[in-house]
Amino acid sequence: MLEARGLFKSFGKIAAVRGVSFAARDGQITGLLGPNGAGKSTTLRMLYTVLKADQGDAFIDGTSVTADPLAARRSIGVLSHGAGVYNNLTARENITYFGELHGLERADREARAAELIEMLEMQPFADRLAKGFSQGQKLKTALARALVHRPRNLLLDEPTNGLDVMAVRNLRKLLGQLRDAGHCVLFSSHVMQEVEHLCDEVVVINGGQVVAAGTLADIRARVANSHLEDAFVSLTDGDDGEPK
Amino acid sequence: MNLRGIWTVFRKEFRENLRDRRTLLSALVFGPVISPVLVAVLVQFLISRTETQADQDISLAVIHAEYAPNLLNYLEARGIKIEKVDFDEAGARQAVAKQTHNIVLEIPPDFGQRLQAGEPAPVVLYSDGSRGFERQGVSRVRALVANYGIEIAQLRFLARGIDPISVLPISVQEIDVSTPSGRSVFVLNMMTYLVLLSMLFGGLYLAIDATAGERERGSLEVLLTSPVPREHLIYGKILAAAAYMFISLVLTVTMFALAMSFVGLERLGASANLGPAPAALLVGCCASLILFGSAYLTIISAFAKTYREAQTYLQLVVTIPTMPLIFAGLLGLQTKTSLMFVPFLSQHLLMTTVVRAEQIEPLHILVSAGSTLVYGVLLAYIAGRLYRREALLG
Question: pTM of the prediction?
Answer without folding.
Answer: 0.80
